[in-house]
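Batch job 17 of 40 flagged for manual review because the log was empty.
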Amino acid sequence: MENWNYASYASDGTLARRYPYNYAQGLNYETPSADLQSMATDVRSSEQNARGMYRRWAQFMSADSWDELGQERQG
């Protein structure tokens, strides 16, 4: 929690207010991971898991019912 306190304080500074935050999380800039080159698949380092989590969170926040959430998952 201490880190969040510092981040909140820093967000109130002159430079932080001058430039918008970038929430793209490396979108379209995924790169091959040197540590995983020996794997048979083309593994890339990205923020896809985080984007997927926030996408699902948004679905939970906008759904009217549990049934609606189940339908989104299936289709």
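Reviewer: the log was empty due to a logging misconfiguration, but the result itself is present. The first helix runs from residue 2 to 10. Unflagging and moving on to job 18.
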